[in-house]
Known about the structure:
Layout: E1 21-25, E2 39-46, H1 64-69, E3 73-77, H2 91-99, H3 104-111, E4 118-122, E5 132-137, E6 140-145, E7 151-158, E8 166-173, E9 179-182, E10 189-194
Parallel strand pairs: 1-2
Antiparallel strand pairs: 3-4, 5-6, 6-9, 7-8, 7-10
Helix pairs in contact: 2-3
Amino acid sequence: xxxxxxxxxxxxxxxxxxxxxxxxxxxxxxxxxxxxxxxxxxxxxxxxxxxxxxxxxxxxxxxxxxxxxxxxxxxxxxxxxxxxxxxxxxxxxxxxxxxxxxxxxxxxxxxxxxxxxxxxxxxxxxxxxxxxxxxxxxxxxxxxxxxxxxxxxxxxxxxxxxxxxxxxxxxxxxxxxxxxxxxxxxxxxxxxxxxxxxxxx
Length: 201
């Protein structure tokens, strides 16, 4: 993750006076000092408790407090989920999918195996890590993207959007790859086609 965002792991009960919060996961039933932090656009806040999804009149902090403090989305249980980890988001899975360019709702839903007793709130289509930027110069092209999942890709080029496309090379994309440099290539339309890791017969 360090290759995508500057990372600071804070070992404390709560964050305070932080100006760049992107992910905030805790197990506290009431999170203090939320209003003393600044959440980045698209930020996720979650207190992973038994009743965070009870939005009004609950005994624990409502997940709405995250949005009021500036987070873009959160998740909470609406009834007692007991001690079933599958009913709670897995922070590492939320972050991995979100940082690869998926929407917030996609990232959250892939991290909760049993979402039937939970409630997502916020902007489900938030996607701050999506998109592709390109720069042509120095005898090649640099593409910055996070939405390609790790794997081996065929780089294909065509004179128009409609094709015909032909292979101009292969590219290995690793976890968290931000920039891809392509060598001397002519101006064209490009696409990346992921090669199946399993040989077909």
